[in-house]
Amino acid sequence: MHDSFEWSRASGPALLPAEIRATPSDFVVTEDLTLDFSGDGEHDFLWIEKTGANTQWVAERLAE
């Protein structure tokens, strides 16, 4: 069994090796909120930072 495979390329060989989005720190989202949080009202604002957990799992934990 071969450990590597030579892919066909339309434009010739790759010029540089690359590794894209390999670790959780490669995925950073910074929200730019322009809302005014008055502290009044029926909704709560939560600031959640997560690593290694998907959004659905976090939402399910919050709903418990």
Describe the structure.
The protein is mostly loops and 64 residues long. Helix content is 14%, strand content 0%. It has one helix at residues 55-63. The longest helix is centred in the C-terminal third of the chain and has 9 residues, at 55-63.
**Overall mean pLDDT score?**
84
Helix amount, in percent? 10-25%
Structural class by SSE content: little secondary structure
Radius of gyration: 21 Å
The largest β sheet comes out as: none
* Content of β-strand: under 5%
Number of helices: 1
The low-confidence runs, each spanning 5 or more residues with pLDDT under 50, are: none
SS elements, strand count: 0
Distance between the termini: 48 Å
Shape: elongated
Briefly summarize what is shown.
With 64 residues, this protein is mostly loops. 14% of the residues lie in helices and 0% in strands. The protein has one helix at residues 55-63.
Topology:
Elements: H1 55-63
Descriptive tags:
single chain; little secondary structure
